[in-house]
Design a protein that fits this description.
This protein has about 200 residues and is of the alpha/beta class. The protein contains three helices and eight strands, in the order αββββαββββα. A five-stranded mixed beta sheet has the order 5-2-6-7-8, covered by helices on one side. Strands 1-4-3 form a three-stranded mixed beta sheet, covered by helices on one side. A hairpin with an 8-residue loop joins β7 and β8. α2 crosses α3.
């Protein structure tokens, strides 16, 4: 009976030691970090003159990028999901709100309706369809998208635009890559603001 008790104690001690090792390993692993896109246009950026009222109605993100984990673009069409870096909110919602905030700094404030605000009947809708929006192995963020300005006038045809942008960042610095993504949305906002302010033919 004594030998049996000693055996049980040895097994229990071994299990306890293994649990301690596992807990120590978990405690030493890097914590998960959450990131958010932010407005990148300067608060003192010059405003363009425009009387057109616009609202970012939709930012479409492809399913491959529509994930909580931050996605990186690999070679030969491969994608890598980060184990440690995640978005604090859905990517499409963040992009829509940040783009709206950037436009607020580039156009007259009464000409930009925020995403959840009720829009007047004459509001023109901005729709963005993102094709590519991720950092590659070098840290460079590649962005490709089309965006449309849809008039509220009956029978009006949308003005469609295609844009490709890139922004360099440190390949080992996820925060820098997220800032690069925010900078790209700022550049996109500048292009949209220029088109909104331009005389319509």
């Amino acid at each position: 009976m004594k030998h049996s008790r000693h055996g049980v104690r040895r097994v229990a001690a071994a299990q306890l030691a293994a649990a301690c090792v596992i807990l120590a390993a978990c405690g030493s692993s890097p914590p998960v970090q959450f990131f958010a896109l932010e407005p990148a246009v300067r608060a003192d950026a010059p405003r363009r003159q425009s009387s057109t009222v616009v609202q970012v109605a939709r930012v479409h993100v492809p399913p491959a990028l529509d994930r909580q984990q931050i996605v990186h673009q690999g070679g030969s069409g491969t994608l890598t999901l980060s184990d440690r870096s995640r978005w604090g909110a859905p990517l499409d919602e963040m992009a829509r709100r940040v783009l709206s905030q950037d436009l607020l700094r580039l156009l007259p404030q009464d000409c930009v309706i925020l995403p959840e605000e009720p829009a007047p009947a004459a509001t023109e809708k901005i729709v963005v369809d993102i094709v590519q929006f991720a950092a590659d192995a070098t840290g460079t963020v590649q962005f490709a998208a089309s965006w449309s300005l849809v008039s509220a006038a009956p029978g009006a045809r949308p003005h469609n635009h295609y844009v490709e942008l890139s922004e360099s960042a440190d390949a080992q610095d996820q925060a820098a890559q997220v800032r690069a993504m925010s900078d790209i949305l700022g550049k996109l906002a500048e292009q949209i603001a220029a088109a909104v302010a331009a005389p319509q033919s």
